[in-house]
Design brief:
It is built from four helices and five strands. With 149 residues, it is α+β, with helices and mostly antiparallel strands. Helix 1 runs antiparallel to helix 2. It is globular, with a radius of gyration of 14 Å.
Length: 149
C-alpha cells in the first residue's frame, strides 16, 4: 500500500496529515492481510466522536470490493486502529472543534494509492453505519460504483 496525497481537499495536506495517514495505513495493513477472499479495493469507514474522555474511535467498518461492484464486510480490530485513526482525524481537523467525523479510507489495487474523505458533524451523520444503513454507506464508499454525471 502506498499513500497518495489525494485527500479530496482544496489545499495540500500538511506534513502532520501525511504522517498520520502513513501511520494509519501501516495499522490497517495487517488487518487487511487477514481478509482471505479476493478483492480489488477496500474502504475502511472510521467513526470518531468526542466524548467525556476526548476523541474516541467508536466504530470501524471495513468493506472489500471487487471491480464488478460487489462488496463484502469484514472485521478489523477497533483497539488496534483507535490511536492512529484518532490522530489522523485530529490532524485533518486542523484544530477546528467537532463532535463527530466519519472517514472513508479507500485503497484500490489499480492505483495502489489511498484516498480519504472526511465528513464532519451533520454531514457525518449521513454515513453512520448500522444494520439498516450498512449497504448504502458501503455503496457510497465503493470506488467502483457508477458515478453520476
Amino acid at each position: 500500500m502506498t499513500q497518495g496525497n489525494e485527500m479530496n481537499r482544496g489545499s495540500n495536506p500538511s506534513e502532520v496529515e501525511q504522517q498520520t495517514l502513513r501511520e494509519l495505513a501501516a495499522s490497517v495493513q495487517p488487518e487487511v492481510h487477514d481478509f482471505s477472499n479476493e478483492w480489488d479495493a477496500f474502504s475502511v469507514i472510521f467513526t470518531v466522536a468526542s466524548g467525556l474522555n476526548g476523541l474516541m474511535l467508536q466504530q470501524v467498518d471495513p468493506v472489500f470490493y471487487v471491480k464488478s461492484g460487489a462488496f463484502a464486510p469484514a472485521v478489523f480490530s477497533r483497539h488496534a486502529l483507535e490511536e492512529p485513526a484518532v490522530r489522523y482525524v485530529e490532524a485533518r481537523s486542523n484544530g477546528r472543534p467537532f463532535d463527530m467525523a466519519v472517514v472513508f479510507f479507500t485503497y484500490d489495487t489499480d492505483s495502489k494509492g489511498i484516498v480519504t474523505r472526511v465528513f464532519w458533524d451533520s454531514d457525518a451523520v449521513t454515513f453512520l453505519v448500522n444494520p439498516d444503513s450498512w449497504a448504502s454507506v458501503a455503496q457510497a464508499a465503493n470506488p467502483y460504483r457508477e458515478k453520476k454525471a
